[in-house]
Structure formats: structure tokens, C-alpha cells
Fold this sequence. Notes:
This protein has 484 residues and is α/β, with parallel strands linked by helices. It has helices at residues 12-23, 36-43, 57-62, 78-87, 105-117, 130-136, 149-159, 178-206, 212-222, 230-240, 262-273, 278-290, 293-302, 316-348, 355-361, 372-382, 393-415, 421-433, 440-451, and strands spanning 5-8, 28-31, 51-53, 69-72, 96-99, 121-128, 139-144, 162-163, 167-168, 174-175.
Amino acid sequence: MKAALGVIGLAVMGENLVLNMERNGFTVAVYNRTTSRVDEFLATRARGRNIIPAHSLEELVAVLERPRKVMLMIKAGTPVDNMIQALIPLMTKGDVIIDGGNSNFEDTERRMKLVEAAGLLYIGTGVSGGEEGALNGPSIMPGGSREAWPLVKPVFQAIAAKVGGSFPCCDWIGRGGAGHFVKMVHNGIEYGDMQLICEIYDIMRKYLRFDSGRMGKIFAEWNGGPLSSYLVEITGQILEYRETDGEYLVNRILDVAGQKGTGKWTGINALSEGVPLTLITESVFARCLSDEKKERTEAAGVLSGPVPGTVPGTETGGILHDLHDALYAAKIISYAQGFELIASAGKHYAWDLDLGNIAMLWRGGCIIRSVFLEKINDAYKQNPELENLVLAPYFCTLLNKSQESLRRVVAGAVSSGIPVPSLAAALTWFDGFRCEKLPVNLLQAQRDFFGAHTYERTDKERGQFFHTDWTGHGGDTPSTTYSV
Length: 484
């Protein structure tokens, strides 16, 4: 018996993907560097299934159908490079190496060239959905060697989440590192969504003085409307979860957040592309600030601020309406920033991306899945040249209706001393984006004054640059004009 695909790495994601593949009719070969994990897996979750154990890379490669397909579900970075180097001599022309971890897209670009130079094919794919998604149907975002896609498509689309019972949340993204780039931005948007929800929660508990159970019911109610999404759904469940003594568990969880790097990479690449990814970047910094627990505890004892007010019950309904609409408005802005980054990188790297299709790949299986994504797909299908998501009629109308709620929520939080970095970033971006005249005319004058960096004029055509001798003794020689 031969296996359709080999999987290296039997941590939770690897195991669950293997079980998903086998359940969908594919025989899978498995290998783990610590080979005892292979035996444990075959003796427990994989018992009686069409799963072939391998205790060496040579064994793994020997039991695969040709062209061979080997998927790495291992830690990103050096371990992936080492495994690729070990596999290349064992494989033959046309075989495929697949990296299913959260690798940096630039590493994927480099690895694809290395693997193709050896006569093999390479895929770097994002896999989203956590352990549940891996087992029952994730969102899969493959990129790399275009010729490899038909070889893995039957497996990937069979195991992916299905929308409407038939549409697989998996399709080809683009060449090179496109798949891992899109997964990176997906994770950045996930950072933003989670932070926005946390800020709304913080206002509810500190300003409205709601207990966790009441907040959980509100999020559950919101999940039945336009905010319907996986993260809003689980937020309701988390807030209502009690321990055996009746106390809400969320109140006992330390307020220090971890991160694994994809949010940071998203911010770094936004800076490289010159895209104002303000909301998502603030969500990353919010996690960094949370890590300064010792310093925050000390500061709480010496730095003063306003005490959040108590809201009369008669006003609560209006405030909840504002919180709902503020969350929705900020969510639109977060996705608009994320898709602007994807579009910019797509042009930069000539990936020929289908933005509407990418939105639909996130419609099921992944952490940011929501009904909202169908509207993004509609917007790009109606106008493939759409410059920014907020300019689409549907989203423009929603933002015009909800921006006052966002203003009231941000203003109220700031007045009460409740930190809302991502909600505030959403509002600031919105006001900046709709502002025909920003104050950077003064900034350009400052740059020209101290560095002769030149400026453009409102009474001249774009592309003409001027320098002024502001002091009368600075000379007429301008600096070279360029922008990073």
C-alpha cells in the first residue's frame, strides 16, 4: 500500500490534519523526529486507520505515491530549512515539498528557488483554524510552484472547510511566498479583531459595570446579527464559562498576552510597503504593553487618571448600540487596511492576487471566519480595481452610518481613562483617509528647511519638486528626491 501524501510533524496540527486526510479517503504516511510519537499516534488516535508509520525519512519517502508529496508541519525557521536539506537528496524530479507552518513569506520565496533548482516543486501554505479546523476543515492558502498546485489540489480541497456545503475554503493564491503572505495578513487581522473585542469588553466591565455573564449574553446576541463571526461566538462562550465554585474563569486569567510573530511581521511588512496598517499594528503593541505587567502594576499606584463613570440604566441600551456599531465600523477599517496591504504586496511581487477569492477562503474554517467576508468578496467582484475597501458603496454607507457611534465610544473611553488603542486607531485612520487636506504640507516645509528635501506645490502639476532657501543663507542646492 502506498500513501497519497506524507506528513512530517505530529504535534496537534499535524496529527489533526493527518486524521482529516484519512477521513476524506487518503492514505497518509507519517514521520516525527522523535519517533516514539509515531508509535504513540498509531497506537491511539490513528489505530485502525489507513495511516502508514515511518521511522526515518527514507522510510517515509519509500511508501509515497509518485510524484511524492511531503508536507512539513514543524516549527518555522531553521527546522524547516534543515528538513528541506534532508529531503532533497531523497526525492526525484517533480516531487513536492510542502511547508504548512507559519513561515515568513520571504523564507518561502527563498526556499522555493532552492527546491526548484534541485528539480523539485515547492508549496508554502497557510493553514488556519487551529486544532479544530485542522481536524474538521481548515482554511488553506497555498502558494509557491504553480506546477505543484494540480498535484495537491485534490487533497487540500477535500480536507478544507466547505461554505454552503460545497465551496472549499482553499484555492491557489499565487507564486512564491503569496500563500504565506496572505496567511500572515490573516493573522494580523485576527490580532486586530481580538483586540477590538477586548476593548469593547473592557468598556462594558469598567464603564457599564456588567458582570461576565451579562457580557457573554450580549456577545451571543450580537453573534446573531451582522457581527456574526467565530471570534464573537467564542467570546460569548468564554465570558459565560464558570469554574466549579461559580466564579467566571475569565476573571482569573492573567492579563498578559502572548504572540508568535505573525502580527509583528504584518506590521513590519506594512511599513515596508508604505501601507498605514495602524489598527493592526496597535493591536500588536497592545500585547507588548500587556507584557509589562510589573511596570503597569507599579504605575497603577503612582499615576492618576479619571475613574470610569457609572451609567444610568436608562442609557444602557443606547450605549450598547454604540458599542455594537463601533465594533462593526472598526472591523471594516481593520479589513480595509489588511486588504490594502495584500493588494500592495501583490503588485510589488507580481502575484496576480484575487482579493475577492481570498476573502471567501476565510469564510469558513479559519479564526476570522464571518458572514462579513461575503460582503468583501461582493465588493471586489463588483469592482476588481477597487482602491480601498471603504470606498465600496456597501462599506462606505455602513461607515457613514456608524462613524458617530465609533466617535462616541472612543471619546467616552478616553474621558474615562479606558485604553482603546485599536478603536482609536480605527477612528484616526478614518478621519485621516477622508481628509482632503492633511497638515503634512507643514511637515514637508520642515523637511525642506532642515534637509533641503524639497516639496511639491498646490499651484503646480504633481511630480515637480521645489526647494526654498528659508534662511537666506542656505543655498539653492536641493537634496535628492526619493521616498522609501
